[in-house]
Amino acid sequence: MPNRPVLDFWYEFASTYSCLSALRIEDLAEAAGVAVRWRPFLLGPIFAAQGWATSPFNLYPNKGRYMWRDTARRAARSGFAIVRPETFPQNSLVAARLALAGREAGWLPAFSKALFRAQFCEGRNIAEEAVLNAALREAGADPAAAFPASRSEEVKGRLKAETELAKSLGIFGAPTFVTGDGELFWGDDRLEEALAWARDGR
Length: 202
What we know:
Elements: E1 6-11, H1 16-22, H2 25-32, E2 35-40, H3 44-49, H4 56-59, H5 61-77, H6 93-101, H7 108-120, H8 129-138, H9 143-150, H10 153-168, E3 176-179, E4 184-186, H11 191-200
Parallel strand pairs: 1-2
Antiparallel strand pairs: 1-3, 3-4
Helix pairs in contact: 1-7, 2-11, 6-7, 6-9, 6-10, 7-8
């Protein structure tokens, strides 16, 4: 579909709600006639600027307990199960760099979905090279090329720039969806509304 409106999908690999959106956004966007631009970034620097050393879901136990139950309910509605990994939140730095290394090659979305499934459907650690390798291969990428690219100064700078851009847009959590006219929607439960706004401008 030519000249489709674009929705920017800002996500953090350590985010449960980002996982929910990543695993359903493509079908919904296709049905809405909207193109999705996948934009991985890091929430850590944004949280640190607010004085948080970890996820608010860890800082506030009641909020954390609710989040795990809520994501389990939402995942079940989409036909899959959420597994709580042993470590939460996980270190997502290398994952985000790898994803951005694959942006031009076209495997960023497939890699992102594979990594989210490994983490939150299988309970695996996305900081482990074996898990990253498996996700790359599932996405059709060559780990022998992807890892060196992810360590380049260009990709490191790209991730820093993306995170700074997210901050400048007022993004404070993930997932966040930003429409072409700058409207911001936060949370997996706002995905459908964001797609409708991207399509209709309201």
